[in-house]
Design brief:
With 78 residues, the chain is of the alpha+beta class. It has one domain. The chain is 37% helix and 38% strand. The chain has two helices and three strands. Strands 1-3-2 form a three-stranded antiparallel β-sheet. Strand 2 and strand 3 form a beta hairpin. It starts with 7 loop residues before the first strand and ends with a helix.
Length: 78
Amino acid sequence: MDYSKIVFVLELNDDSADNSTNSYLEKGWLLISVGPKLTDITNSQAYYSTSYVVGATREQYDEYLKDQKGLLDRLTGI
């Protein structure tokens, strides 16, 4: 894989991270890393989730920014 064109990386580790990661991969983003992430420690018990890191080219990142702005506009009613 050619990582030289990656200009932005995004870490996903919430309850829908696997679905979100697949959506980014379908758009051509590159999978950089998958692994455990410590999310909480309660009563000396460690809790982990799966963390996915994906990378975007300049074009993909520009589209991501546009999508984020649209989402923010919808949420704020602008």
